[in-house]
Amino acid sequence: MSSLLHPSQQLQRIVALDGALVGFAEPIVRKALNRLDAGEGTVLAETVAGKALPDEVVTHIAARADGVPLFVEELTRVVVESGLLRDEGDRYALDRSIPSFAIPPSLHASLLARLDRLGPTAKEIAQIGAAIGRDFSYELLAVVAQRPDL
User: Fold this and answer.
1) What is the phi/psi pair of residue 5, to 5°?
2) Architecture of 36-115 per CATH?
């Protein structure tokens, strides 16, 4: 059984907004997010990594991510999963300089690489969802994908 929730079940989930627990039935407040400064980007990257990162890694991530939080998170995951870092307990260390290809040049490239690693079924479903548009129901996706097992 998939760990993904059916859209109708997602509406029942509880989410945290502004420190208060509310259901999706409540109004949702949109907040504009500014780009992260260097210090905030470092904190986010090290939070995602779970420990301190080498300065060179943080510098590369910051340069590519341009303060976009989602990109900082994604690039940090890419670097941690790449095998370039050595786990030294409370921090990561870098044995050699980071090859230019190790950090994807864009969020798009990074997400495509992650999708490729998930396998052909996940990639196919994502492509079908992208062709349908931003909003679609679970039922529509299952019919269009011709996969009742979704």
Assistant:
1) -90, 145
2) Orthogonal Bundle (1.10)
> Domain map of the chain by residue range?
36-115
Per-residue pLDDT reduced to its tens digit, 85-96 = 999 999 999 888
3-class SS string, the chain:
CCCCCCHHHHCCCEEEECCEEEECCCCCCCCCCCCCCHHHHHHHHHHHHCCECCHHHHHHHHHHHCCCHHHHHHHHHHHHHCCCEEECCCEEEECCCCCHHHCCCCHHHHHHHHHHHHCHHHHHHHHHHHHHCCCCCHHHHHHHHCCCCC
User: Do 48 and 58 form a contact (C-beta atoms < 8 A)?
Assistant: no
Q: Look at the pTM and tell me if it is higher than 0.85.
A: no
What span, in angstroms and rounded, lies between the C-alpha atoms of 26 and 17? 10
Place of tokens 């090859």: 99
